[in-house]
Amino acid sequence: MIRTLVPGLLTLILVVIGIFHFIWAATPWPWRDKVTFTKTIAGIDTGEMPPPLVTVLIGAALVGGGVLTLMVNGTLPKIGPDWLQLTGMAVLAAVMLVRGIGGYFMNAGAAAEFRHWNSVLYSPLCLVLCLLSTTVAVAAIRR
Predict the structure, then answer these.
(1) What is the C-alpha to C-alpha distance for residues 104 and 90, in angstroms, rounded to an integer?
(2) Which one of 30, 64, 75, 140 is least enclosed by Cβ atoms within 10 Å?
(3) What parts of the sequence cross the membrane (predicted)?
(4) At what angle do helices 52-73 and 123-142 cross, to 10 degrees?
């Protein structure tokens, strides 16, 4: 179960969030306008969308993390040495840990919408993604 369910769940979540970032590079969907989007996602009420290139790069990194997960799990053909893939999983886990813990510090001065969603969804989800990434890496090491 750990070698199938955990990598599948991690990949699904990363790819879905990555696709949202691709969408957000062009539109604030599913929010009705840019101000609501920036209040909810970025914690600012200026309505100024994040730079599209940065948003696309974040989306690509998230989708790449999903692909990496499937490579480390053995579902997709591996590219590169095992140590590099495991390093990538460690980096993914570390980034999610930093965003998960650091996210709570981002609440200070942020819009109320962001503070709410960051506290109940964004930061906890990043901590879950850290746990799932770590689980995938440890399972790969023990194989």
Answers:
(1) 22
(2) 30
(3) 49-71, 83-101, 121-141
(4) 30
SS3 per-residue string spanning 77-109: CCCCCHHHHHHHHHHHHHHHHHHHHHHHHHHCC
**Rounded-to-integer distance, Cα 118 and Cα 115, Å:** 5
Return all residues near 1 (Cβ < 8 A) that are at least 6 apart.
Answer: none
> Using CA atoms, how far apart are residues 117 and 114, in angstroms rounded to an integer?
5
Of 57, 35, 55, 48, residue with least CA distance to 114: 35
Kindly tell me the sign of the dihedral angle through the C-alpha atoms of 7, 94, 100, 29: negative
* Range(s) of the domain holding residue 18: 5-142
What confidence category does residue 143 fall into, taking pLDDT thresholds of 50, 70 and 90? confident
Count of domains observed in the chain: 1
pTM for the full model?
Answer: 0.95
Q: What is the CB neighbour count within 10 angstroms for residue 143?
A: 9
The distance from CA 36 to its chain's CA centroid, rounded to whole angstroms, is 21
